Amino acid sequence: MKNENKAQQAARCRRKFLRLFPKGFRDDKYLSWERNYKWEAHLEWETELNRTAYRSLLRQGKHAEIAMRAVRIESRTNLLFSFEKMALRDAVKSSKGSRSFAEGLFAFLYGPGTQERRFENWCQVVAALPRKQTRVMTWPVMTVFGFIAQPEAHIFLKPNAMREAARLYGTGMTYQPRPSWMNYESFLGFAAALRRDLTDLRPRDMIDLQSFMWVIGSDEYAE
């Protein structure tokens, strides 16, 4: 019975998505509303902060330049709330903050080690960034740069909408307000389940999967 209920919930979410975007992930409205601006941010990242360019800037000690580029690329999206954008800008203004951010983000995106180890280290880096008023370590800030830089591997987490999407889809998702690998791995598991269930709609990457979750769980698309 539980499996039947879960299947019904998943089918209901799928129907909602296709009512809004009849051609699925290739629908022109979907591309305009959800995918294109995220993909454009990724392409800009690939131009300005790909592994080679990023490493070169690090070797030159241009931590502030790295931070400026990363923040600028993100600022052209609506992924972070305004208070998160402000907290991030404040956190990387000082030389200490920009250096910690630049070195930590490179290690997360391009460094050695398991995904778990790199994510946990990134959590520590963000938690230690300078703070003026609003805290920097939120799930959106933690996950936005991985999502922009490597949408084939990383996903962006807006807690309220994504938890609601998991509930509506009938998928359990471990969640705690403080970012950790255990919670992020659970979220990646939800994305993997969606990828399997939506095979016929041909999701290209985490941008499509995150967009599906957003459409299902956010107030923006409430029915």
C-alpha geometry: globular
**Strand runs, count:** 0
Tally of separate domains:
1
Number of helices: 11
* Major sheet characteristics: none
Average pLDDT figure: 95
Helix content: 55-70%
Question: How do the SSEs run, as a string of H and E?
Answer: HHHHHHHHHHH
Hey, roughly how much beta strand do the residues contain? under 5%
Kindly report how far apart the N and C termini lie: 26 Å
Backbone structural class: mainly alpha
Poorly predicted runs: none
Rg from C-alpha positions? 18 Å
Please characterize this protein's 3D structure.
The protein has helices at residues 2-20, 28-48, 51-59, 63-75, 82-91, 95-110, 115-127, 139-149, 159-169, 181-197, 206-217. It has one domain (12-221). The chain is built from eleven helices and no strands. Helices cover 68% and strands 0% of the residues. The chain has 223 residues and is mainly α. Helix 3 (51-59) runs antiparallel to helix 6 (95-110), helix 4 (63-75) packs across helix 6 and helix 6 (95-110) runs antiparallel to helix 7 (115-127). The radius of gyration is 18 Å and the shape is globular.
